[in-house]
Amino acid sequence: MSINSSAIVLFSHGSRDPLWRAPIAAVAARISERHPDRHVRCAYLELCEPTLVQATDDLVQQGAAHVTVVPMFLGTGKHAREDLPVLIEELRTRYKDVQFTVQGAIGEDDRMTELMAKIACESPG
């Protein structure tokens, strides 16, 4: 990773069940496959690792100068509204030379709403 590179962190709630993490890992794998120049990590709020700090530490050590955090939540609940801003502020204090961008909750994107509605209306296979 070059010194001026950008990175993505897919941030989710977390679970002790490793099968729960599979869809988030699949999104990360798809990003890596389709955009090999973009470094991506998964991070979790609780119950499993890596945490947001751990994932960001790894990316910054590899040279990330800009980190985009993507909340992998269906809506802007307590975790996205309250917990995430505190964590981002901690990262900004820790890494003063790194730019952090936080996207909105993935489930609130109109494209995701459209896709979920389409899937819901499909006949079962």
TrEMBL record:
<dbReference type="GO" id="GO:0046872">
    <property type="term" value="F:metal ion binding"/>
</dbReference>
<dbReference type="GO" id="GO:0016829">
    <property type="term" value="F:lyase activity"/>
</dbReference>
<keyword id="KW-0479">Metal-binding</keyword>
<dbReference type="InterPro" id="IPR002762">
    <property type="entry name" value="CbiX-like"/>
</dbReference>
<dbReference type="InterPro" id="IPR050963">
    <property type="entry name" value="Sirohydro_Cobaltochel/CbiX"/>
</dbReference>
<dbReference type="Pfam" id="PF01903">
    <property type="entry name" value="CbiX"/>
</dbReference>
<keyword id="KW-0456">Lyase</keyword>
<protein>
    <submittedName>
        <fullName>Cobalamin (Vitamin B12) biosynthesis CbiX protein</fullName>
    </submittedName>
</protein>
